[in-house]
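Narrative of accomplishments. A recurring question from our advisory board has been how the design workflow behaves on a single, concrete structure rather than in aggregate. To address it, we present the structure tokens for one chain from the evaluation set, followed by the sequence designed for it. No filtering or post-editing was applied between the two.
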């Protein structure tokens, strides 16, 4: 067996009388390994199970970090600060919980976005901006957007958008949807199901979710609630 440029080549070798084998000169000369590029590459990893993804999502909502002046996102033509972080923190920094919303971001607890390849807390420690709610992707900020939150939770190893999540999820029914599954609206938004809330007649009234959203007072990964009417405008999906 010879490894070459991410390929495994197998050769049948003739055995000698003492049961040893030798790599022939022709095979040895044919082995021409390519130099490994210094450019970092995304590594495909096994997706997390539904229950593990739900736990990972919870961790992103609860991660504790220190917000310092270097992390304050400027408001300009490229970036806009998340509403709850649009202020000057104290000189020693302020303790925050939850990863802020960052357009195009997948900087989770242990995941990074192409261009930064660092997780959220490492990015913050290195002076990256804490989130960006402008619709412009920038490597100057770290955090997660809605599909980045889902991609990080499921540990896909790459970021899927709301229009490409159908590559790794398949449509299902609302009656089959369980905790950890997702509901997606292509080109708009996606969230992870926590639970359904029903009335005394067993009718669904609202849906508790885990999501990265700019709804509400804090633009970040958080627990949220949606009316059943709103939830039904999304497509229920489960991991393929």
């Amino acid at each position: 067996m010879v490894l070459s440029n991410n390929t495994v080549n197998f050769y049948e070798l003739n055995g000698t009388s003492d049961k040893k084998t030798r790599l022939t000169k022709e095979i040895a000369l044919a082995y021409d390994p390519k130099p490994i590029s210094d450019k970092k590459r995304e590594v495909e990893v096994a997706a997390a199970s539904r229950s593990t993804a739900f736990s990972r999502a919870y961790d992103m909502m609860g991660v504790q970090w220190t917000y310092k002046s270097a992390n304050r996102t400027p408001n300009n033509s490229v970036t806009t600060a998340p509403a709850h972080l649009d202020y000057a923190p104290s000189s020693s920094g302020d303790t925050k919980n939850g990863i802020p919303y960052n357009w195009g971001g997948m900087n989770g607890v242990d995941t990074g976005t192409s261009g930064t390849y660092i997780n959220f807390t490492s990015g913050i420690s290195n002076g990256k901006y804490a989130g960006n709610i402008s619709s412009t992707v920038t490597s100057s900020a770290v955090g997660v957007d809605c599909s980045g939150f889902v991609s990080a939770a499921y540990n896909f190893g790459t970021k899927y958008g709301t229009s490409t999540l159908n590559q790794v999820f398949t449509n299902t029914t609302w009656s089959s949807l369980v905790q950890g599954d997702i509901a997606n609206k292509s080109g708009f938004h996606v969230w992870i199901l926590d639970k359904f809330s029903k009335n005394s007649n067993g009718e669904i009234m609202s849906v508790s979710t885990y999501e990265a959203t700019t709804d509400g007072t804090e633009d970040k990964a958080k627990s949220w609630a949606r009316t059943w009417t709103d939830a039904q405008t999304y497509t229920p999906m489960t991991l393929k």
